[in-house]
Amino acid sequence: MLKVRVVRSETAMTDVLREVSLMKMLDHPNIVNLIEVIDDPNTDKFYMVLEYVEGKMVCNNGIGLGEATSRKYLRDIVSGVMYLHSHNIIHGDIKPDNLLVTSTGNVKIGDFSVSQIFEDDDDMLWRSPGTPVFTAPECCQGSAYHGRTADTWAVGVTLYCMITGKYPFLGETLQETYDKIANDPVEIPGDTSPQLADLMQRLLYKDPGDRMTLQAVAAHPWVAGAEGPVPEFVCRCGFGRRNRSDSQEAVQ
Fold first, then answer.
1. Is the Cβ–Cβ distance between 223 and 217 less than 8 Å?
2. Domain 2-52 has CATH 1.10.510.10
3. Which has the least CB within 10 A, 9, 191, 215, 216?
4. Where do the domains of the chain lie?
């Protein structure tokens, strides 16, 4: 178990209560589990007790993880993000630093601090709180964008990092990074297998309307491999049994 202490402030507590409310609804093998919440009135401290996951994904070393490991990890990531999207949750910050790896090699998605939950399928957002190098082109324009396709772009950037050990778009400054994301074509290494190159290209389409959906990713030949398409997870979580908007109730 991992215990995270939260120092109280009005803004911090609002964000944490939203995160707790969301995490208590989730039940998926590729998502970090929230075990317990402790609100200690004696010390005025608030603790989130999370499932302990041993390792972090390291993808920015210029080497990459290889196709076999990257495929296994991507299957876990896609399964977890599809689960979130099916419940109208946008993660908002998919990246290797938020993808933990268990001792048995399973990936778990963590850090829901900037995640958003919607009452219906309308996933329109107006600002991107995520990490710049994983930001989708449509989020760099300062206009509204769809959260699901932005998450999908971040999955594509993560795959690129897993394969190459590098970011696909990185400038000297924040603005230069955004300019590269919005305008530069993605450079696929010449030794990349055709199926993998196709997958990376389609995940990193600039136009979100042309970008691959996660359902299509789950069935893509490179992802399916010998195991077949990533199966849809049978949900046994608490959605529909809790009031999503009542964060206070979620921590009691």
1. yes
2. no
3. 191
4. 2-52, 55-224
